[in-house]
User: Which sequence fits this backbone?
């Protein structure tokens, strides 16, 4: 029970990696607050998790500052504290060559990935700093270490998330708060299944070809599993991860070997 009694707020917590992390935290004795847009799905996920009063759902849009700050405030009000923040929500958005990329699309990528991380972290930090203990885990991407065609805005956003992670780790490390990023490679989640065909088309290939390409770039020659991402999140959130901060940990099967 590595996280017994610990309270975690997880954005994008009802599907994919966010849900996987929530399940892993609950299995280790933690309490979780999940944030996503679809209230009906949120209620269904809570029922499926079967965690009783150790899990709550709050509906809102991660691209809305007021919604996101409200989520942090409600989590603290409900559980009385906040120990762990997982900035998981994010995505690639409009996939275009840079010459065709609109200002709006670039802004959306920044808002979805960078501003959301900034807003939630800024709201959560005071309670962590006051008690001298906390964990911030940013779900970045291997595209935050290198890049691919038509993913320019997304890659720029995830590089920014990694930069924020490194700087904030130095800012709050002596006050007991660690800040790390997990950089997943290809993970076959619902969002990949739903949006992947459009990504592949923008890259000039079929969906199956894109999956095979991404897998071929990894040392393990396969996509990663949600559980593999969640296991690293548990480490970073637990006492065992207290000496890790400012890291951008690749969980990408050996795609970006740094």
Assistant:
């Amino acid at each position: 029970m590595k996280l017994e009694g610990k309270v975690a707020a997880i954005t994008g917590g009802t599907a994919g990696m966010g849900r996987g992390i929530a399940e892993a935290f609950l299995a280790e004795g933690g309490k979780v607050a999940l944030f996503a847009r679809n209230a009906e799905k949120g209620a269904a996920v809570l029922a499926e998790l079967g965690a009783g009063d150790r899990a709550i759902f709050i509906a809102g849009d991660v691209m809305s500052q007021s919604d996101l700050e409200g989520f942090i405030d409600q989590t603290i009000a409900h559980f009385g504290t906040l120990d762990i923040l997982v900035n998981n929500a994010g995505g690639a958005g409009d996939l275009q060559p840079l010459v065709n990329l609109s200002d709006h699309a670039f802004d959306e990528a920044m808002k979805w990935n960078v501003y959301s991380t900034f807003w939630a972290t800024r709201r959560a930090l005071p309670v962590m700093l006051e008690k001298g203990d906390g964990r911030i885990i940013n779900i970045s991407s291997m595209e935050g270490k290198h890049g691919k065609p038509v993913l320019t805005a997304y890659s720029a956003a995830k590089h920014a998330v990694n930069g924020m992670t490194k700087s904030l780790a130095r800012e709050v490390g002596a006050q007991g708060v660690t800040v790390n990023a997990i950089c997943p490679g290809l993970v076959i989640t619902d969002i990949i299944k739903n949006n992947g065909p459009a990504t592949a088309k923008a890259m000039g290939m079929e969906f199956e070809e894109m999956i095979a390409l991404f897998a071929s770039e990894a040392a393990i020659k396969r996509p990663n599993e949600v559980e593999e991402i969640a296991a690293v999140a548990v480490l970073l959130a637990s006492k065992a991860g207290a000496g890790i901060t400012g890291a951008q940990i690749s969980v990408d099967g050996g795609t970006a070997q740094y």
In short: Residues 114 and 161 are 6 Å apart (CA to CA). The chain has two domains: 7-185+224-250, 187-223. The beta strands are 7-11, 31-36, 55-59, 84-87, 134-139, 177-184, 248-251. Residues 103-131 form the longest helix (29 residues).
